[in-house]
């Protein structure tokens, strides 16, 4: 079950890193730039730990899908970006896809 926690941590670190990337303004602000690099490093490390017990395609789909959906919400809440009906439907499709992947073959566990 640790692989689930590693994957959740990888997603959280990716969200922090991507938010910091936006805040770094093209890597011109040192603190957000450092947070970006460290956040992605932590994210990939935790993702690699999750991959010890999960199928690559399932883990990557969850990591990228949940990260993408979360970043749309972060963009809306923190950066006043639009959240149109089309975006909401698209996010719902991502969530349905992630759930579907988890329902097949026992959620992608390999050991």
The rounded Rg comes to 15 Å
Major sheet summary line: none
In total, the number of strands is 0
Q: What order do the helices and strands follow?
A: HHHH
Proportion of helical residues: over 70%
Structural class by SSE content: mainly alpha
- Which residues sit in consecutive blocks of at least 5 with pLDDT less than 50? none
Number of helices: 4
Termini distance? 11 Å
Mean pLDDT: 92
Domain tally: 1
Strand residue percentage: under 5%
Shape: flat
Structural overview:
With 111 residues, the chain is mainly α. It has one domain. The protein has helices at 2-23, 30-50, 56-79, 85-103. Helix 1 (2-23) runs antiparallel to helix 2 (30-50). The longest helix is centred in the middle third of the chain and has 24 residues, at 56-79. The radius of gyration is 15 Å and the shape is flat. 23% of the residues are buried. The mean pLDDT is 92.
Reconstruct the topology from this structure.
Blueprint (H helix, E strand, L loop, with lengths): L1 H22 L6 H21 L5 H24 L5 H19 L8
Descriptive terms for the model:
single chain; 111 residues; 4 helices
What's a concise summary of this model?
The chain has helices at residues 2-23, 30-50, 56-79, 85-103.
